[in-house]
Amino acid sequence: MELDVMQDKDEVAQAVIEIIAEQAMIDRADISRDNTLSDLGLDSLGLVECIFGIEERFGITVPFNANTPDQPEFDISSVGAIISEVEKLVARQAA
User: Fold this and answer.
1) Would you say residue 18 has pLDDT above 60?
2) What average pLDDT does the segment 42-63 reach?
3) How many Cβ atoms sit within 10 Å of the Cβ of residue 49?
4) What is the pLDDT of residues 25-48, one digit of tens each?
5) Which of 4, 35, 42, 84 lies 20 to 30 A from 75 at CA?
């Protein structure tokens, strides 16, 4: 049984927010798509932990190089941008 696209996207968004909330040690309800990771108190180590969590949760490889975070192939400018990037990677994997 295939889930519809909107349900898939909602599940991806909720899972990404859950991973970020866990790393930031805050409630999921306190996270909006407009937040940056620094807004949430996450530093570069927290970002890397989020990336690992996303990769593990979705079985994907995130094209992010921690040595060049200012030149990401994976948009980390906001929670919404991260969700969008993960949705793309999950869709590619499913194709």
Assistant:
1) yes
2) 94
3) 17
4) 999 999 999 999 999 999 989 999
5) 4
C-alpha separations of 50 from 35, 36, 45, 63, 78 in Å: 15, 13, 9, 13, 13
Angle among Cα 82, 74, 4 to the nearest 5 degrees reads: 50
* Contact by Cβ (8 Å): 36, 67: no
**Hey, what are 4's tokens?**
């519809």
* Whether the Cβ atoms of residue 19 and residue 54 lie closer than 8 Å to each other: yes
66: number of CA atoms within 13 Å, CB side? 10
Block residue for tokens 């909330």: 21
- Domain residues for 65? 5-94
- Total number of domains in the chain: 1
pTM of the model: 0.87
- Cβ neighbours of 55 (radius 10 Å): 15
CATH code assigned at 56: 1.10.1200.10
